[in-house]
UniProtKB/TrEMBL annotation, chains A, B, C, D:
Domain of life: Bacteria
InterPro entries with a match to the protein in the record: Metallo-depent_PP-like, YmdB-like
Species: Acetobacter sacchari
Protein name: TIGR00282 family metallophosphoesterase
Any single Pfam family the record assigns to this protein: YmdB
Amino acid sequence: MRILFLGDIVGRAGRDAVIARVPELRKRLSLDVVIANAENASHGFGLSAAIARDLSACGVDVMTLGNHSWDRKDLVAEIDGLPNVVRPLNYPPGTPGQGSTVFTLADGRRVLVANVMGRLFMDPLDDPFRMTQELLARHRLGMTVHAAIIDVHAEASSEKWALGHALDGKASLVIGTHTHTPTADHRILTRGTAFQSDAGMCGDYDSVIGMQKEAALARFVRKMPGERLQPAEGEATVAGLMIETDDATGLARKIAPLRQGGILSQTIPDF
Amino acid sequence: MRILFLGDIVGRAGRDAVIARVPELRKRLSLDVVIANAENASHGFGLSAAIARDLSACGVDVMTLGNHSWDRKDLVAEIDGLPNVVRPLNYPPGTPGQGSTVFTLADGRRVLVANVMGRLFMDPLDDPFRMTQELLARHRLGMTVHAAIIDVHAEASSEKWALGHALDGKASLVIGTHTHTPTADHRILTRGTAFQSDAGMCGDYDSVIGMQKEAALARFVRKMPGERLQPAEGEATVAGLMIETDDATGLARKIAPLRQGGILSQTIPDF
Amino acid sequence: MRILFLGDIVGRAGRDAVIARVPELRKRLSLDVVIANAENASHGFGLSAAIARDLSACGVDVMTLGNHSWDRKDLVAEIDGLPNVVRPLNYPPGTPGQGSTVFTLADGRRVLVANVMGRLFMDPLDDPFRMTQELLARHRLGMTVHAAIIDVHAEASSEKWALGHALDGKASLVIGTHTHTPTADHRILTRGTAFQSDAGMCGDYDSVIGMQKEAALARFVRKMPGERLQPAEGEATVAGLMIETDDATGLARKIAPLRQGGILSQTIPDF
Amino acid sequence: MRILFLGDIVGRAGRDAVIARVPELRKRLSLDVVIANAENASHGFGLSAAIARDLSACGVDVMTLGNHSWDRKDLVAEIDGLPNVVRPLNYPPGTPGQGSTVFTLADGRRVLVANVMGRLFMDPLDDPFRMTQELLARHRLGMTVHAAIIDVHAEASSEKWALGHALDGKASLVIGTHTHTPTADHRILTRGTAFQSDAGMCGDYDSVIGMQKEAALARFVRKMPGERLQPAEGEATVAGLMIETDDATGLARKIAPLRQGGILSQTIPDF
Ligand SMILES: [Fe+2]
Ligand SMILES: [Fe+2]
Ligand SMILES: [Fe+2]
Ligand SMILES: [Fe+2]
Ligand SMILES: [Fe+2]
Ligand SMILES: [Fe+2]
Ligand SMILES: [Fe+2]
Ligand SMILES: [Fe+2]
């Protein structure tokens, strides 16, 4: 199966780039599934149901979230009506929405997509190690699902790498989000799980992680609340990772980063 | 000037790879200066004077440190005798060692190298924004120094990007360290400063940020102190960034990542 | 000199209690100076200029702030016109307002009042140890000022105690704020400085640190943003510490906590 | 039932004071049960089995722990043989030891004692709210147990207060530990649960939370590892809280702090 995962979509610049490029990428790369982290899609903070539908319409099959899940209060009410939106699975029991979903392709193949938050330097949610292992014990790769994608929304590289190794052999892809910075450490781990500690962001990189520079810099320097942070509006780079999996085992065979548009160095998978 | 900056050297694997490769890289890439972060060079924790000398001998001109600066207590006593070792400049007044140094090439060109720590999710040291700006007001790029390299040892991508923009036009290179993960966001900022939010590590990437997997994973899962963390001992990837600067202005003209050896995707500058 | 310091005034309940009680307390306890932390006076978040004037009018001579200093944006513009309001002195240079003030009594005696923020588990500001020591080197107790009061607005008890010892003999009183919990560890330190690690809050204690229980509890349990936190509105306890100092040395001779009104155990200084 | 809870016992000074005073306090106050937090009993860091036995022998019926539970590695092996030692119940499944115990008095009355850690500014363990509520659903106050004591080992006053309200009516006492600072906010909550946000420490208060001043202060000021922290060795104050409960309901009828010996203000329950 040919899968593209896109990092945090930030604001209008990020959305416009994703909406413009995903249709052609699906064709050019013969993609079977496209997943994107959309926690910053609505003006940098959260995801509205309307924007979730726009992203679906352009070819994003499943959207994941993160610490900004509930920035848009309307999503709290609407998330249960959005079957292809996934929020972190380690929120407490009773949290609206779902922590994972099984997306079924037109040809019947099944893809588990889950979202989990790290705890180091972040909100202390339930244990991401235990919860992802329990999830992957229920959805067996190569048995009940053809592929399994885990979006690890976390700050610390150590926690992301640890989770990658913990799930190695049980997921097709463990991919980090949240730092808004693409990493060059993508690889297939020992037991066949593809890994990248951060997919990067789909946003304007002439910024502070997607936000306009002046206001973001002022917060660090002045230590006062200032103007509200606004997403940067220059051309976005669409950033993510593509993998190809073996449908029999669900494990990864090929892996390559993708960076298209905007000011970052450009790369596109060649398989 | 042709400059190579290498990310955190971790343990024997990292040292061996740096010592083996730097001599040939200096020739092949016609490097004028090589700088490396060495805060994890001694068995993953700190830098001993003996290892500092070994790294110097192989062609590392200046070494920077970070939150592990004082893991080796002997360095506290010895650092003042090591003119090419730089510790974070935002430690309190009275801290042993120096926060920056001006390294002079054989041909007389002068390169400022400084090390500064971020404060987000890290120890609250003095203000890295103010201190680097004061430093670069004293050492004017293209005037008193031909190049200026700032190693921003920090956890949060936002703080690193903010510091990059804050120093844009005043330094040749602002480069992150500490996450032990190379980022694919290298670029030359608007006013001519090269930037990468993390140089990555020189270490074995089949690990948790350079440490053996089992013990590092156990800490996250079991929440008990366990075995001491040990550096992973597989072949290291030497990871860093190369830039070429204009000696007249000190600003960057070219930029490219370098990843050689080990299990990461390989790349070498082609200029 | 007879000095009363009151902890964080929270919302209407806290203000009403302070305004009702301070005039009688000034008389009953023959107070020379009353200081109060007012960072939560305006509906729990910040201090408006109007409320600062109300508190002044009732007999609060100097008000201190903390991490909520700028919750009311209007104070940023107005603080320079409020000579008896003090914000943390370890904000960066250029921050509006003042980090300390010398309040002069009708009889000419001078009282230094400063506010400083801790850094452990809080925003990384400038070094509170260095800055308070520099301040107290400029304002010599028993020489240029008759008393010196340092409000240490901090989370960690260890940092507050460390600062108490660091300033012992140089200040009349080092008193903690921010936890909204009165501590029973008040005492006069070895070299004569009075100390209490937290003065407590002037607010309704049938609450979560002054905020209504249900919403505050929901945040911990549900891990979602919910209703906005609102100050609890039951009768407040006015909580603080009284000291008597020797005008010749500025050091403390007597110390006793004060808790009046509301549901906490009641106590009033008997000297 | 007449219950005394003592805060964190720190080092030899704390142990000596507890061992000297508990026998007379049991008599004088007609105590039925004595519980103490012992996470710092062994030279400030952890609890050895030998010291656990010494504390038992002097009349401490149950000991609780905290973030220092495993500082003494030998306790990991020995804790399962110590039926009256309780470690935080929100460690991951599989952690040695027990998170709660039911202590049976000579007359057959049963007292549940549990230990739980907060997560704000601390290690992200399992949810303390959910786990204590599940525990108290299994052990019904006034039904299966005559009293229930919950030691909330936590940094943030807000989290302790929130947990107090969450358990109000379901426990006899919710008492904080960890800050090593006795608070003056003890009271019986609306539905009958006694509460104090911190019991304080049994240790020498001429210190930084029980550790010798110079080394503890140096860490804040110098930002370098220095001498190892050592417990202060002056006379300790035994600090804690006494409650009297109604055996029929398990709820609290009376509450008063206790501070005996050392340099803090002295108080002893008068009921
Ligand atoms: Fe994001
Ligand atoms: Fe995020
Ligand atoms: Fe490092
Ligand atoms: Fe580091
Ligand atoms: Fe406050
Ligand atoms: Fe505060
Ligand atoms: Fe403790
Ligand atoms: Fe503790």
